[in-house]
Every structure is written in C-alpha cells, then in structure tokens.
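Ticket #4471: structure export looks truncated?
Reporter: QA, pipeline team
Priority: medium

Steps to reproduce: submit the single chain below to the structure queue and open the exported record.
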Amino acid sequence: MPSIQISTNVKPRDEAHEKELVLELSKFCAQLLSKPETYISVEFTHVPTLTFAGTFDPAFLMTITSLDNINPEANAKYSQELFKFLNERLNIPGDRGYITFNDPGRTHLGHKATTFATIFASK
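Actual output as written to the record:
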C-alpha cells in the first residue's frame, strides 16, 4: 500500500511512454510517501472525455489511498510535489486537477488474503 490512481485527458506519446511514466510515478510516490515501492500500485487511465472547468484542456483526477501517512500537513506536501510532477511530465497546469487522499484504516484494506490490521499485528 499505497495505491495511486490517475485519470487524465493527456494522451502519452505511445505505450512505451505510458509505461515509462507509470514506473516513474511509482518510484516518485514511493519516495514521496515514504513507503517501499514493493507496496506501490499505480493505475493510469487515459480518458479523452475528462473535462475540468468546462474545457478539455489538459487535466487530471488522482486518488491516493495509503495507510498511516495521510494527514493535513503531509497532504499539502504531497499535493505540491505531485502537481509539480504532473506539470513537468504531462504539462498539466496546477489549476487543472484534483487529488483525493484516503486512509481507509488497517481493518478496511485487504492484502495477502487478510487485512493490514492482521498483517501488522503479527509483526
């Protein structure tokens, strides 16, 4: 855990560029969120019909689900860095997207046929 989902109307140049971008985002989020990349999952979806502020100009929607590190101070830092990343990689302006932060709690997130509450309790 964490899981990063991004939808954008910006189309990568080709499949290789899309995969490169996703792997780069995976490494970036592992460092930013202070989580091992072995737990990071990234889903990238190109949505040509995504609008923001009534236009089809470059935009995105992102959801980050993570355990134990979602809080107001951290979210401000995450937002700053992720908006910068998306501007540099996809030329999406800082006023053309939303990031939703979720911490479902250890009892509400499953992995390895159990929950993280059970996984962390056994350590």
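Status: closed, not a bug. The export was complete when the record was re-opened. Leaving a note from the reviewer for reference: Strands lie at 3-8, 41-46, 60-65, 97-102, 110-111, 114-115.
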